[in-house]
């Protein structure tokens, strides 16, 4: 299982803050997971085109090619600015 967390405007757009999902067959990295989630249609399609979307696996910032394993925690969030 993957624990997936959605933050800020991503959470608002999708209408949920988290979910647990069995690692889909053939999905080996963040890019594959985004593609899988986008196939749900509707607001999920925006994950594939979300401008400057950030990703973390097990609380470490990663790139699209970061590998995924069962038990990982994946977070999706927009860039943030400080003030």
UniProtKB/TrEMBL annotation:
GO cellular component: molybdopterin adenylyltransferase complex
GO molecular function: nucleotide binding
Domain of life: Bacteria
Membrane spanning residue stretches: none
GO annotation, biological process: Mo-molybdopterin cofactor biosynthetic process
Nucleotide-binding found in the keyword field: yes
Keywords recorded for this protein, A-Z: Nucleotide-binding
InterPro entries: Beta-grasp_dom_sf (IPR012675), MOCS2A (IPR044672), Mopterin_synth/thiamin_S_b (IPR016155), ThiS/MoaD-like (IPR003749)
Keyword Nucleotide-binding among UniProt keywords: yes
NCBIfam families: moaD
Similarity field: Belongs to the MoaD family.
Protein name: Molybdopterin synthase sulfur carrier subunit
């Amino acid at each position: 299982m993957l624990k997936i967390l959605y933050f800020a405007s991503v959470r608002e757009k999708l209408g949920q803050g988290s979910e647990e999902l069995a690692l889909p067959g053939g999905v080996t990295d963040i890019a594959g997971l985004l593609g899988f989630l986008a196939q749900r249609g509707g607001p999920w399609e925006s994950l594939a085109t979300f401008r400057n979307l950030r990703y973390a696996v097990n609380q470490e910032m990663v790139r699209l090619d970061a590998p995924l394993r069962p038990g990982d925690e994946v977070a999706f969030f927009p860039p943030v600015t400080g003030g």
